[in-house]
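Chapter review: from sequence to fold.
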Amino acid sequence: MAPARAPRFRPTAPLKALLVASIAVPALVFAAAAWQSYKNAFRLADDRARHISSMLEEHALKTLEAMTMVLRVADQRLRGVDDQTIATSRALWQEIRGLQQLSEQVGSIYYIDREGRNPLTTRLFPPSTLDFSDRDYWYEHRDSDRGVYIGRSYTGKISNQPIFNLSIRRTTPDGTPTTASTGCCTRRPGSAS
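The token string follows.
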């Protein structure tokens, strides 16, 4: 029987292990750093989206508050004024139009009577003879006070532009309910209202 040989030392085994480790360890570190960076990027994007959403919500509320204030001031000015005067007074129209022009968010101010006609619109003087009784901002106030009502989006009958209307119910001096509404016309930069 031949004598047992001592295991032969192979110097390449530790080198191979070192070579594998020199590739695997940096790859694992890079993968971990990339994953952390990926999570951070999404967290930052989510935080930014929440912040922007909050700012937009606040701006929308402030815009609606400004439109409501303009509407209430117009309603106060028209209180006690009969429909004939509202429809024919250029001085009154200019005053209401000046009020509308104070807020760039308000495209126009309308007054819709109990028949659905508009004796006043700041879009034109004298007013149109169009019927607005098919619009939700008119018929929603016909039977009850809805407070400040935000109507659905329409193509304006006078402006032919996309609008939505904010409206309140108003009552004439004899107690008959009518509506007053402001329209907010969607504007593109450089376009006229």
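Two observations follow directly from the output. Confidence is low (pLDDT under 50) at residues 185-193. The longest strand covers residues 162-171.
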